Amino acid sequence: MNTPARSSVRAEKLIKTYGSGRTEVTALRGVDLDLASGSFTAIVGPSGSGKSSLMHCLAGLDRPSSGRVFLGDEELTGRPDRELTRIRRDRIGFVFQSFNLLPTLTAGENIALPADLAGRTIDRDWFDAVVTSLGLTDRLRHRPSELSGGQQQRVAIARALIGRPEAVFADEPTGALDSRTAAQLLSFLRTCAQESGQTVVMVTHDPIAAGYADRVLVLADGAVVRDLDRPTTDDVLDALREHEPVTA
Amino acid sequence: MIRLALAELRRHPGRVVAVLLAVMISVGFLGGSSVFLATESQALGRAATAALGQADVVVQPNGEIRPTAQVLATLRSTPGVDAVAPRYRASADFRIGTGTTAPSGSLDLTSAADDPRFAPGRLVSGRWPTGPDEVALAVDTASRTRLGLGSSLTLSGIGGGARTRDVTVVGTVDAGRSLLGGLRDSGFAAPALFAGDPAFSYLVAARGGTDPATVAATVQRTLGSDVEVQTAAAVRADTVRSLGHGVDVFRIIALVFGAIALLVGAMIIVNTFAILVVQRRRQIGLLRVVGADAGTVRRSLLVEATVVGAVGALLGVGLSLAAGAAATAITGSLSAGLAVPWPTVLGCAAGGLVVTVLAAAVPTRAALAVSPLEALRPVADEAAVARSGRVRVALATALAVVGAGLVTLGLTTDGQSLLLAVGGSLLLAVAVLLLARTLLPPLIRLVGQVAGLLGPVGRLATANALRNPGRAAVTCTALMLAVGMIVTLQVGSSSVRQTVIAQLNARYPVDLTVTALEPGAVVPDRTLAALRAVPGVRVAVPVAAAPATVGRAGAPKSERTTMLVEGPGADAAPATRSGLGDLSDSAVLATRFTLRANGWDVGDRITVRIGDRSTTLPVRSSNLGDDNTLVVTRATLLRLDPALATRSGTAAVWASVPDIDASPGVAAAVRGLTAAGTGLSAGGSLAETASYTTLLGVLVSIATALLGVAVLIALIGVGNTLGLSVLERTRESALLRALGLHRRQLRAMLVVEAVLLALVAALVGVAVGTGFGWLGTLAITRQSGLGSAEFAMSATRTLTVVAVAVLAGALASALPARRAARATPVEALADE
């Protein structure tokens, strides 16, 4: 593609504080970022760097204390909960580290959940395509308790993708997986970004996982300190070490 | 969202069992009491109907008694009248066989008539008595005395006279039964048995096609003001109404307890759904994240609540029918058919469903106020808890103020005292429950000081109990309610009983009197000895008494009547609560009833004549003495009948039965001692005290049994909550184990925590229950015009309730404690 990529996820001067008075904690100190559609971005940083807070704000799960968040052309900040919910349902997909699925529903029902909530009918062909590409065809009738960790994550991704969202946010998606399954998952995420034009944003502390991304943002103490383009795992490790909290 | 709701229900059906039970029992209680009361009323109606047969008009002599033949002739010749029959009534003592220990009792006799239209009941076996030596018994009397066709009895004292007659049982009759009417034995006899007595009433059958009201009016005109003429329908309605006053009291009591049951049910439903919402916090959060808006999630939860509520309500309807049928089977009214007031019962079911959904809506709102992200975090934000606290306290205070206001209004004004008091009490109860979260932690801390003596386990347990005041309040609330209800019931019933009996005691200064009826007769020594030996009789004092002719001074002979004159000495004091002070040598004492019955006014001079001695004294009103006896000082009596001083035996015995609980037993024994053939009759407050004690005892037992199930619900709720808190503390428990806490110490810690919470809940429940029981008594007393209320409370029963609650709390924690202790430290720490 030669035309400049459209901006899909954008943040302006994001500030997020928790608590008040003496217990006030600043998680984000004025973060600016601009993620193009079709990109696979990883956000890394030591614990306490604010990466989870950043993702929550970008995904419309939490409100920043100040600053603005955009999804495509629409601003997310300042919208009432009802509209945010609708946007989450129709235009955003989520994958978490664990607890992605409702234990009382089958895998198939879990995948169809956002559509059910929207009252939309699912395109059967698209459903089958996603399920097949994730290798879940014979697991659709099983409950989450009957699936392995890797299978559960795959079901979660299927659910995230089924609505063809503009953006997919993943919070430590490979944290609970063995290395082989993790590799498969990450390849799949990269394929989604490249082929479907979705914006995939992944928060991780694992440098190997970060190596799969096109772009890696290093967060430390609530601010973006490095912006790496197609880094290798070692590049990421170096960047992290640079910004490690100083030990006395 | 319905699919989601049903999926949740199918996966964890056990979690809603408590809600189901709560709804089922509340609806069952309210509905069951409606069914019970409706069936009782129907049986009462049938009994009242049975006595009148198919008569259309009832004529009741009012003033001067005219000869029966004359009245019959007049009635028969009245236009519109088809047939007439006189109805006689009399009481008689009966004895089967000989000897004072033979089964016996008192029989209410009604005359049977030749005309089947006036049959006073339905013949079950044998035939109606036709001659003066025959009698038919009511079915219940026959079964109680084990008499059957062909048995013989001796009747004596028929209609208060001296007649004695041996009769044979020729039939049994179903005259309808009910809780209130079935306490006396009844029988039926031919008119010949009542020979010479004036008719009690006349039954008239109207000619076909004529309006009974018209016939009644005609008869009234014809016979004048000496009679009271009513249509049979009006008489039935009056009878049911007057007997129904007793049923009204039951209805009020049932309403009060039903409201309480509903409140407990609602609280348990709120608690259970609060727990369910917490358990599914992460799922709800996930749904919100994935795109379900607040309305959708709330709808899903409410659908669950509706389904559970509907199932519970339906089961409750079934329970109503079963409970009502069982209760009326016990009282015997079921034989008249089960009356099911469907609108009321279905209304109760609908009410149960509505309460379930409303109760579920409360915690649902709270859950959805949280942002989706927060819901995914494991621990609730502390700030949020504090915020809701202020609103809660404000609401609770407002409710308390309004509730207290209503209660005060109810207790100080006349009119709907009970309704206002109950309404106000409910608001106060809700206020207390809302304040539980604020009140309980300091109390737990206080009681926890004692637990701290047990060492580190105790201290940890106390700290755990205090860590989440909301959770502690939830756990305690259900148990607090259950204990509170039971104590309210106990205190209320004891106090109501005490109040009623205080009234009786004021009216009857002597608990029990036994008097010899015939002139010259005495209470045999062996009867006196037997009376003294009855457990519950504290003292039985012989009182000098003799029959005398009494009448107003200067009045004609016709106004004179024979009455027993009693002259208690100072030795009668132990048997008398009060009234001895009224005695005076210059007056004669009579009860208000006696005065009214004889047409005397206070101050009238009454002549009392025994043999050829007489004295004339002014009459004064006093509660001392039975109806239709006079009381004078011993000296006055001895002046009239000097032989009394030397004669052995007395014609009257006064006894004291101070223990109310013993009264039913004493009453039964006295019935035996004063049966037919003994020539004795019993008086005083004992009979009424006994019947109140028995009635209230039955009511309390039934209500306690029903409340016992509510306690079971509360325990299920406690177990549920404890199980949840153990699950949430899995990692903590594992950490403690890793640090060196033994398995049994961990179990002990959880048990101590449960016992601590249960004890505090029970203590608060006792305190609150006593308060509400007292309020209820005050309100009932005011509503029924019983006078001043008295407080009564049984220490043993209350302590038992507390002990059971604490034990149950410990038991409820046993299962979760075992589960917690079973996990190895490493396993549990690895759990996400």
UniProtKB/TrEMBL annotation, chain B:
<keyword id="KW-0472">Membrane</keyword>
<dbReference type="Pfam" id="PF02687">
    <property type="entry name" value="FtsX"/>
</dbReference>
<feature type="transmembrane region" description="Helical">
    <location>
        <begin position="342"/>
        <end position="362"/>
    </location>
</feature>
<feature type="transmembrane region" description="Helical">
    <location>
        <begin position="252"/>
        <end position="278"/>
    </location>
</feature>
<dbReference type="InterPro" id="IPR003838">
    <property type="entry name" value="ABC3_permease_C"/>
</dbReference>
<feature type="transmembrane region" description="Helical">
    <location>
        <begin position="307"/>
        <end position="330"/>
    </location>
</feature>
<feature type="transmembrane region" description="Helical">
    <location>
        <begin position="16"/>
        <end position="38"/>
    </location>
</feature>
<feature type="transmembrane region" description="Helical">
    <location>
        <begin position="748"/>
        <end position="775"/>
    </location>
</feature>
<feature type="domain" description="ABC3 transporter permease C-terminal">
    <location>
        <begin position="256"/>
        <end position="371"/>
    </location>
</feature>
<feature type="transmembrane region" description="Helical">
    <location>
        <begin position="695"/>
        <end position="727"/>
    </location>
</feature>
<feature type="domain" description="ABC3 transporter permease C-terminal">
    <location>
        <begin position="706"/>
        <end position="825"/>
    </location>
</feature>
<keyword id="KW-0812">Transmembrane</keyword>
<protein>
    <submittedName>
        <fullName>Putative ABC transport system permease protein</fullName>
    </submittedName>
</protein>
<feature type="transmembrane region" description="Helical">
    <location>
        <begin position="795"/>
        <end position="815"/>
    </location>
</feature>
<dbReference type="GO" id="GO:0005886">
    <property type="term" value="C:plasma membrane"/>
</dbReference>
<dbReference type="GO" id="GO:0022857">
    <property type="term" value="F:transmembrane transporter activity"/>
</dbReference>
<dbReference type="InterPro" id="IPR050250">
    <property type="entry name" value="Macrolide_Exporter_MacB"/>
</dbReference>
<feature type="transmembrane region" description="Helical">
    <location>
        <begin position="418"/>
        <end position="436"/>
    </location>
</feature>
<keyword id="KW-1003">Cell membrane</keyword>
<feature type="transmembrane region" description="Helical">
    <location>
        <begin position="472"/>
        <end position="492"/>
    </location>
</feature>
<keyword id="KW-1133">Transmembrane helix</keyword>
<feature type="transmembrane region" description="Helical">
    <location>
        <begin position="393"/>
        <end position="412"/>
    </location>
</feature>
<comment type="similarity">
    <text>Belongs to the ABC-4 integral membrane protein family.</text>
</comment>
